[in-house]
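thought: user wants a sequence for this fold. calling inverse folding tool.
action: design(structure=
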């Protein structure tokens, strides 16, 4: 019954959830998806009245678009939205989750706090999306071609001019602020003083790291494609509404004529649409970007031939300009990513299924890994000798630790070798089998030793 109701409501359309569809990038992406006639879009927004007005202006098909209330400033609102979505969709599975909504507060001299007591930019941009993904992932895993797309930014990727050449730089450091709960008065994940622009950049860094972590943990077992994107600098976006007037006037000119990185909302929306729609973008663990400068003036003619953007050349000239961009060492740092995932789960209350990625059972690889770990550990313990000014038996402790490390790793190696032997040859029997040659063969006669001890005693007693 529920399946029949879902088929009646959605037909063969894919179900897409987009946060922040009432303006900017989310609005243009929803418009592009709806124009294909192949998607039902759920627009998750804070202001339903504004969304209804935008939907009327952009001529969204009411049968294919459903606005729902979502306040990313509150974890409770995120949970309520997910519950409402489950009730609405019934047996239909979510095919796409696009985490787009964001706020940018660079000019604030002090932090603004969310309903839950966290810095607003970090909760709206990252933490609430983190919680939402955890709530919807079990359902996404049941869809035939599920994708989770997180809108990152060049500002979160410090191997670029935009990310590494403009202060402040995104940097989570040791995540001391997050470990402390990142709650008022702790505003920054790194535990240091608040800088509005850095909080935004850090939130984008977190999103890109989250995409990689989810790919590593869950892609193979769920089939969900996790990716992040940078659609270009939308210099005229409402995202910059809190910037000073002179910035809003001259920044688009600078990006358009000096750097060439300017991208209009229409263009950026088509790029995000591509990652949600293009079969080539079903690849997981990717940070998508586009080559070249923008191509202006495409407007209504942008979508042709099953949604593909015709033409070649620059970023706006066709889908062929998309590429898998490199990510910075900070984004790819596995230790920081695991710490971020762990404490974000604690703060948001997110629950995740156990990661069950396939691992190689090959004993040789396990042995090589154990031996490599031993060598690395030995070198690190050599380095950890007493530094000048240090008092105590650090050196003795270091040597002892080396011995312990050797014992543990060699024991691991022995166990791996034994495991390989058992798999290849079978376990050795504890006792001989009945009827074996050893059991039936007569015992060899023992040599006669009578008189030997007596002769030895006589020799010793002789003068």
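)
observation: tool returned 463 residues.
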């Amino acid at each position: 019954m529920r399946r029949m109701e879902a088929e009646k409501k959605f037909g063969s359309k894919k179900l897409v959830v987009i946060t922040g569809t009432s303006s900017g990038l989310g609005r243009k992406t929803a418009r592009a998806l709806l124009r294909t006639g192949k998607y039902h879009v759920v627009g998750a927004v804070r202001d339903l009245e504004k969304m209804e007005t935008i939907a009327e202006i952009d001529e969204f098909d009411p049968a294919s678009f459903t606005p729902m209330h979502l306040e990313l400033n509150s974890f409770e609102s995120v949970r309520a939205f997910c519950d409402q979505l489950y009730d609405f969709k019934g047996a239909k599975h979510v095919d796409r989750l696009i985490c787009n909504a964001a706020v940018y507060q660079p000019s604030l001299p002090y932090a603004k706090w969310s309903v839950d007591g966290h810095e607003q930019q970090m909760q709206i941009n990252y933490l609430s999306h983190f919680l939402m993904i955890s709530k919807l992932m079990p359902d996404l895993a049941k869809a035939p071609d599920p994708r989770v797309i997180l809108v990152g930014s060049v500002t979160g990727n410090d191997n670029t001019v935009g990310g590494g050449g403009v202060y402040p730089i995104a940097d989570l450091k040791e995540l001391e602020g997050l470990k402390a709960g990142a709650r008022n008065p702790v505003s920054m994940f790194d535990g240091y003083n608040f800088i509005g622009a850095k909080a935004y950049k850090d939130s984008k860094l977190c999103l890109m790291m989250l995409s990689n972590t989810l790919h590593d943990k869950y892609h193979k077992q769920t089939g969900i494609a996790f990716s992040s994107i940078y659609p270009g600098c939308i210099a005229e976006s409402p995202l910059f509404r809190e910037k000073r007037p002179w910035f809003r006037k001259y920044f688009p000119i600078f990006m358009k004529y000096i750097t060439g990185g300017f991208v209009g909302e229409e263009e950026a929306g088509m790029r995000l649409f591509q990652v949600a729609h293009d079969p080539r973008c079903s690849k997981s663990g990717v940070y998508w970007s586009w080559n070249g400068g923008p191509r202006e003036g495409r407007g209504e003619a942008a979508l042709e031939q099953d949604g593909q953007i015709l033409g070649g050349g620059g970023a706006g000239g066709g889908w062929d300009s998309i590429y898998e961009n490199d990510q910075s060492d900070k984004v790819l740092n596995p230790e920081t990513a695991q710490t971020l995932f762990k404490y974000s789960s604690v703060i948001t209350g997110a629950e995740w299924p156990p990661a069950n990625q396939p691992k190689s059972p090959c004993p040789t690889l396990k042995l090589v890994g154990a031996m490599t770990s031993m060598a690395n550990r030995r070198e690190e313990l050599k380095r950890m000798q007493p530094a000048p000014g240090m008092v105590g038996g650090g050196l003795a402790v270091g040597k002892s630790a080396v011995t312990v490390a050797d014992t543990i790793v060699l024991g691991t190696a022995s166990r791996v070798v034994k495991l390989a032997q058992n798999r290849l040859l079978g376990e050795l029997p504890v006792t001989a089998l009945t009827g074996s040659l050893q059991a039936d063969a007569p015992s060899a006669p023992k040599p006669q030793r009578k008189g030997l001890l007596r002769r030895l005693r006589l020799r010793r007693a002789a003068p």
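thought: summarizing for user.
answer: Here is the designed sequence. Residues 363 and 416 are 6 Å apart (CA to CA).
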